[in-house]
Write a structure and sequence with these properties.
With 117 residues, the protein is an all-alpha fold. It contains two helices and no strands.
Length: 117
């Protein structure tokens, strides 16, 4: 073998069997398809992770603000609050009336004690 057998130029010929050429093309195509499928899957997972993180953040905010009443209240809660306020007012009224009756009872008892003496 001499040096002229290994010279490469734009006129060089490469001999490759057709089945090997087809196999290389199929392998390259499969590699490209696999790459884009993996890239697409990674993108989808990143998007899903972003959505989940946003939902967790919103849930955390809801968990803190809902009990404080910063996010509003349900209609049932409003009705319940109205009923509780009504009961509180009634209890306050009854406490005041009971205190008045106690004072009257004490006066009557004092009058009875003074009358016995």
């Amino acid at each position: 073998m001499n040096d002229s057998d290994y010279k490469v130029s734009d006129h060089s010929n490469i001999i490759i069997p057709l089945r090997n050429l087809v196999a290389l093309m199929v392998a390259t195509s499969m590699a490209v398809i696999a790459y884009f499928n993996i890239e697409n899957r990674i993108t989808q997972i990143e998007k899903d992770t972003s959505v989940v993180n946003k939902e967790v953040e919103m849930n955390s905010e809801f968990r803190v603000k809902w009990p404080r009443g910063e996010l509003g209240a349900l209609p049932d809660d409003a009705e319940q609050n109205i009923r509780l306020l009504y009961i509180e007012r009634k209890l306050t009224y009854y406490d005041e009336e009971l205190e008045k009756l106690r004072l009257k009872l004490e006066k009557i008892q004092l009058k009875q004690i003074e009358g016995e003496e």
